[in-house]
């Protein structure tokens, strides 16, 4: 699993930004540090609350010069519908091939539901050099990150 001090794995993936574009990590961090907030799936209660919580605090991230991205295995089209429903002001990264989830070693299964290789709920802060400065991962999809802690880490990135 990716830890503080590691180089964040590079990726290029579809970006749900109201339209569908493409983003790479190296391009994203060229504008400053980023928060990668991985979540298991769009349109679920805990994931919706988490993304809304990040959205409610976007001003604090912006003041720190940090860009927030949500990351899930959902298609960019589903993510755009999710963004619209929740009125999210930040973009979502689509990892339908699970390349990012695998690179960050945060895959989990909901075997009882027949759903495999989803993203664990996880948050990484990555600085301009692609160094991970904060890492939080939970095995319990019902647990959300400590948002104050994430903001503090972002401010220090």
Features:
single chain; two-stranded antiparallel sheet; seven-stranded mixed β-sheet; globular; 157 residues; 9 strands; alpha+beta
Distance between the termini: 20 Å
Oligomer: single chain
Strand order of the largest sheet: 2-1-5-4-3-8-9
Class by alpha and beta content: alpha+beta
- Roughly how much helix do the residues carry, as a percent range? 25-40%
Give the biggest sheet. Answer: 7 strands, mixed
**Number of DSSP strand runs:** 9
Task: Please count the helical segments.
Answer: 6
Rg, nearest Å: 14 Å
Mean pLDDT across all amino acids: 95
The 3D shape can be described as globular
pLDDT < 50 runs, ≥5 residues: none
- How much beta, percentage-wise? 25-35%
Order of helices and strands: EEHEHHEHEHEEEEH
Offer a concise description of the structure:
With 157 residues, this protein is of the alpha+beta class. It has helices at 25-29, 45-56, 58-63, 76-86, 99-103, 147-156, and strands spanning 12-16, 20-24, 34-38, 67-72, 91-94, 107-110, 115-119, 122-126, 132-137.
Task: Describe the model.
By secondary structure, the chain is α+β, with helices and mostly antiparallel strands. The chain has six helices and nine strands; from the N terminus they run E-E-H-E-H-H-E-H-E-H-E-E-E-E-H. It has helices at 25-29, 45-56, 58-63, 76-86, 99-103, 147-156; strands at residues 12-16, 20-24, 34-38, 67-72, 91-94, 107-110, 115-119, 122-126, 132-137. It has a seven-stranded mixed β-sheet. It has a two-stranded antiparallel ribbon with strand order 6-7. A hairpin with a 3-residue loop joins strand 1 and strand 2. The longest helix has 12 residues, at 45-56. The protein is globular. The two termini are 20 Å apart.
């Amino acid at each position: 699993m990716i830890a503080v001090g590691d180089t964040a794995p590079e990726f290029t993936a579809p970006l749900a930004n109201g339209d569908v574009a493409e983003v790479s990590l190296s391009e994203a961090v060229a504008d400053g540090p980023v928060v990668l907030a991985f979540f298991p799936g769009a349109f679920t209660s805990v994931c919706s609350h988490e993304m809304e919580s990040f959205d409610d605090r976007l001003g604090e991230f912006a003041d720190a010069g940090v860009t927030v991205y949500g990351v899930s295995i959902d298609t960019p089209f589903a993510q755009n519908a999710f963004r619209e429903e929740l009125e999210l002001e930040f973009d979502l990264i689509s990892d339908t091939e699970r390349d990012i989830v695998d690179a960050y070693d945060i895959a989990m299964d909901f075997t009882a539901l027949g759903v495999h290789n989803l993203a664990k709920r996880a948050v990484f802060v990555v600085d301009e050099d692609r160094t991970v400065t904060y890492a939080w991962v939970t095995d319990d999809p019902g647990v959300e990150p400590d948002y104050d802690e994430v903001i503090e880490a972002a401010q220090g990135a």
